[in-house]
Amino acid sequence: MKKQQRKWRWAVIVFLFIAATLCPKKTEAASATVSFSSQEESVAVGEELSIEIMVETDSLIGSIEGYLDYDNNMLEYLSGAKAVSGSNGTLKLAASLSNPAESKSYKVTFRARKKGNCIIEFSEQPVIYEAETEEAMSVSYEDISIQIEKARILSNNTKLDSLQISPGTLEPSFAKTVRSYKTYVGTSVDRMTISAVPSDADATVSVQGNENLVEGENLITITVTAPSGRQKKYKLYVQKETAQAVEPVSKPKKKTQKKQKTEKDLDADFQISAKNGKIILKNRIKYTLVDLDDSGKIPAGYVKTKLILYGITVTAYTLEQDLENDFILMYAKRDGEEPQFYQYDRAEKTIQRFSGISSKSSGTKIVVGQEEKELSVDEYNNKVKKLSMVVGISVALALLFAIGMLNFAIKYFSSKAGKVDELYR
Question: Among candidates 45, 50, 103, 121, which has minimal Cα distance to 80?
C-alpha cells in the first residue's frame, strides 16, 4: 500500500514539472519613470522658466502620450519641443520615436505672470508603449512646484567703469562723466580694439565702427544697455593719418664746442621705416621686427600692445603695471642672428638687448657716498634682514646691560640702608 502511494506521489511531481515547463510563462511589463526638473527653484514675475520632462525606462520606448496641466494665470507657455502642443493651461505630449531609446527628454519654456506657487503636473497617468511589443509600460510619475516671486527692480545703470583702446590714447583720459573722446592712429591701423567694462555686471556693451578705418575721421560708438533696457552711447572719434609721417632729419651743424645732445639730435640717430611689409629700425645697427610665434613667451610682467613710432604702428610689449614707462620691448632680429627681445628707450631713442630685467622695473636704489648702486628686490630684502638682526642683537645687549645696572643699584642701596640701620640701633 505504501509503495503504491509513493508511486502516485512521484507521478504527481512529474506531472507538475512537465506542466510548469510546457505552460507559457507570464512576463512582467516593462516599467517607466517620468519626472520634471528645472535649473531655477524660483523665478520673478516677467522672467522665463525652462522645464525639462525626462522619460526613463528599462526597455526601448516606442511612443509617449500624456497631458500636462499648469495655472495659466501664473505661467504663460512660450515654446516647447515638437512633441509638445497646446496652451491656456493644458499641454499635450505626444511622440512616436523613429529611433527607439531607453530615455528621452523634452523641454518647455514658460514666462512667470503672477506671484505665488505654481504646480506643473500630469492630469492623468501618461502612457508609454514599448517599441517591440507595443504594450503599455508600468509608469510612475511626479509633479514639480515652482515658486514665483514679485518682479525684480531692474537697474538703469548705463555707466562704464573703464574704457581702454588699442592702439592709441584716449583724449581726455577716461572719466565716468565723459562720453566723448578722440585719438590719433597711423596709416597702417585698420582696426581698433575696444575694452569697455560696465559698472553694472548685468549690463551689456556693444561696439560699432571699430573696423575698416579710413583715412581722416572715423566715429566708433560704444553702447551700454542697462538691465532695464535703458541705453547710453559713448563716442570715440579716431583721426587716421592720411600719409606716412616723414622721419626727422638732422641739419648739418657747424663745428663748434661740444654740446649735450638735444631731443631732436636723438631722433636723428633713430630711424624707422616700413618696406615690403617689414618694419625696420636703425640705431647704428639694423633691426627687423618679427612676430612672436605661439611657442614664444612674453617676459613676465609685460603685455602685448601697439605703439605708433613716427607714424608707423609697431607691436611692442610694455610693463603691465606701468604702460607709460620709457622702456618698452620689441621682438626683432639682427642680420645673421636669431630673433629675441630688445629694449627700446623712448627717451634716449636707443636699442639694446633685453637682459630680462627692466631698467625701471623692480630695482631698489641705495646711495652710498657719491655712488648710486641699484639692487634687486632680493638683495635689498637680504640687507634689510641682516640689518634687522644687528638691531635686534644690539637691543638685547642694551636690555641685559640695563638689567645688570638695575641689580647693581638695588644691591648698592640695600647695603647702604643696612649700614644706616646699624647706626641707629
Answer: 50
Q: Which residues pair with 315 in a beta bridge?
A: 306
| Sites in the chain below the pLDDT cut of 70 | 1-28, 243-269, 357-381, 383-384, 416-425
Q: Which H or E run contains 13? A: helix 2-22
Q: Whole-structure pTM over 0.70, yes or no?
A: no
Omega before 167 within 30 of 0, i.e. cis: yes
Cα 168 off chain centre by: 24
- Distance between CA atoms of residues 414 and 425, nearest Å: 17
Q: What is the 3-state secondary structure (H, E, C) of 271-340?
A: EEEEECCEEEEECCCEEEECCCCCCCCCCCCEEEEEEEECCEEEEEEEECCECCCCEEEEEEECCCCCCE
- pLDDT of 245 reads 45
HSE-CB of 204 using CA atoms within 13 angstroms:
6
Residue 137, all three cell numbers: 509600460
- Residue 91 Cα distances to 35, 67, 86, 116, 139, angstroms: 16, 6, 5, 21, 19
